[in-house]
Amino acid sequence: MGPILLPEKLRAAIAAADGPIVFLTGAGISAESGIPTFRGPEGFWRVGSRNYQPTEMATAVAFAHMPAEVWRWYLFRRGVCRSAAPNAAHRALIGFEERAGERFLLVTQNVDGLHLRAGNSAARTYQIHGNIDFCRCVRGCPPAVRELPVTLPETWEKDRSLDAGELAALRCACGEWLRPHVLWFDESYDEPLYRYVSAQRAAERAAALIVVGTSGATSLPARMCETVAARGGPLIVVDPEPTVFSKLAEASARGVYLRGTATQIVPALTETLAALALQGA
Predict the structure, then answer these.
(1) Active site (annotated) includes residue 181
(2) pLDDT confidence tier of residue 159, bands split at 50, 70 and 90
(3) Domain at 149, CATH number
(4) Which residue segment(s) compose the domain that 64 sits in?
(5) Where are the beta strands (DSSP E) in 154-243?
(6) What is the mean pLDDT of residues 42-62?
(7) Which of 90, 115, 129, 181 is catalytic?
C-alpha cells in the first residue's frame, strides 16, 4: 500500500499538537499473527463433564473454586501466544516509537505480550488487560507483578495436568496461589496494575488516537475514544469491518475510518504519522 492520505484538517491538527500520538490495539492485530480471540470454540475448556466458556474461566470466581484448572487453561493459551510471531503491524509500531520517541504511546488490550516481544518499550506500553507471561500473588505480596516461573513449559497440551513441581511453582513464598496477571471479567480496571488513570489521561492530551483492530467490547477503550471525539481530537480507526469506533470516527470533526487489516494499513500509516510528529516537534 502507498502513503496514507489523511484529511488536511486532521494532518494540520496532528502537526500542531505537542501531545502523544496514542495507538490503541486490540485482538485484530494479534489475529494476524495467528492468535485466536479465545471467545470462540478455541477458548472452550472442559472440566469433568462440563464445557466452560472463556467468560466463565477468566474470572476471580472460577480461580477461587478451581485454581489448577484455570491455570491449565491459561498455560494452554500462553503456549498459543508464545508460538506466534510479531507481524508487520507490530514491527511498524517499533519503528514509530524509535522515530517519535516520547511522542509515542501504546495502549493495548492484548495479553499476549507480542508488542513487548516485538521490541516496544515497557515504559511506553500500557498493557491495560495485563500480560499472560506474568503473574502475581493473590495476597498481594511483592513484587506486585512477576514473570511466570521459568520451570513452566512454554507449550501446553489441552489434556495435560499440572505435576507436583508445577503446582509448587505456582505458589508464592507466602503459601498462597500465584494468579495470572490478567484483568478478569469480574474485576475492574485500576491504575497500579492496569494503568487505568494513565490511559485516560493519555486520551485527554493525545495529539491523535489511532484505534487498531478492536471492536469496542470493553469500557476503558470506549472511554478513550469518546474522550478524544468529544474534544474534537484526531481519531483514526483501522479495522477490516465497521465498528462502533469507526462510526464514531466518521461522525467526528477530525476523524477518519481506514478500512483494512492492521498489516495492510499500519505500516504506511505510521510513516505518515511519523512525518507529522517530527514536523510538529
Answers:
(1) no
(2) confident
(3) 3.30.1600.10
(4) 41-83+133-182
(5) 178-182, 208-212, 235-239
(6) 79
(7) 129
Of 23-27, 179-183, 215-219, 277-281, give the lowest mean pLDDT range. Answer: 277-281
Are residues 110 and 63 both part of a single domain? no
Q: Are 70 and 142 in the same domain?
A: yes
53: DSSP letter: P
* Average pLDDT estimate for 164-182: 98
The verdict on residue 1 lying in a domain is no
Contact 247, 241 (CB under 8 A): no
Please count the other Cβ atoms lying within 10 Å of the Cβ belonging to residue 85.
11
Kindly report the pTM of this predicted structure. Answer: 0.94
Residues 28 and 75 in one domain: no
CB atoms within 10 A of CB 7: 12
My answer on whether 72 and 127 are in the same domain is: no
User: Which residues in 191-226 are b (16+ Cβ under 10 Å) and which e?
Assistant: eebbbbeebeebbebbbbbbbbbbbbebebbeebbe
Both 270 and 220 in a single domain?
yes
Using a pLDDT cut of 90, give the percent of the chain over it: 81
Query: Based on the structure, what is the number of domains in the chain?
Result: 2
- Provide the residue type at 185 as one letter: F
